[in-house]
Structure formats: C-alpha cells, structure tokens
Amino acid sequence: MIEVAVQAEPDWADGTDWERLAIEAVTAAMRTTPHAAMLDAAYMAEVSIRLTDDDEVHALNRQYRQKDKPTNVLSFPMVQDDLIEGLDNSDDGEVLLGDIILARGVCVREAAEKGVPTAEHATHLIVHGTLHLLGYDHIEDDEAEAMEDLERVALATLGIDDPYAITED
Length: 169
Prior knowledge:
Blueprint: E1 2-8, H1 18-31, E2 44-52, H2 54-65, E3 73-77, E4 94-103, H3 104-114, H4 118-133, H5 141-157
Parallel strand pairs: 1-2, 2-4
Antiparallel strand pairs: 3-4
Helix pairs in contact: 1-4, 1-5, 3-4, 4-5
C-alpha cells in the first residue's frame, strides 16, 4: 500500500485539494514503473510531500545541492534504488520512500509561463519527484528521455497534456 502524507503551508491554500492531487500524482507515477506492485503490497510505503515557499526550498537547495537559488521541486529518496525491489522484506511493514518538496512561487511562475494551471504543473512536479524517489534520474540524455516518457504516460492517465511538448504561439 502507499500512503501519501501532505503538508501544505498556508500560501498553498487556493482551493485545490492538494492531498487528493498528490495521491493521484504519486499513484500515476508508480503505475508507470516496474514498482507498480508497491501500490498493492502488504507493507506500507510512504511518500511525504511538503508544499512550501521559495525561501525554504532555496535553503534546502543550497544545503543539499550547493545551488544558491530556489528550484521547483526537490526529492530526497530514503531508499536506495537498488533496494526498492526488496521492500517486501521490510521488518516493520512500513518504509518511507522519501520526501518531495515543492516551492510555491517557482511553481506558480512556471505554470504561468507554460500557460497551465498551478495545480496541473504541481501534479507534474509530484510525478517527477516520485520517479526520483523510485531511482529515476535525468543526468544523462538517455535517462532524461526515459524519465520524461514515464512522466508523459503518468500525466496522460490524469488527463494532463505533455509538459514537454513545444507549442507554437
């Protein structure tokens, strides 16, 4: 089973059901991977999502990635990707897959630039972050293409258009 714990700062209160959105995004992302069975596993896998401000994400980005600026999403995996397959053997029946942290200001700005609702862009970022928790990355071009393909599939199941499509104005 999967549990998605959402903590949203007050500036995220815009009428969106962030908990529902996060659960749907995490589930959609997981279903696109070989780890989909985790959704129905006997153990409880938890993903923690924090919706916060640019200042907090800036500080975390500086501390953990040595990048002195805010970013849209940070992911902090708690399970090494090569150990995910063995989670069925978890002693206590629970495992924290990791944390996903979104920056409100960056998310709102990027959504406006893309001409999409903030909730739609945040969904994409949560899908992206979930894939990072499952061991996917985009350092190399082939990894980036594979990860983007998974994102497209997950988002399509949620009725969200390809975020990487180039549109002509």
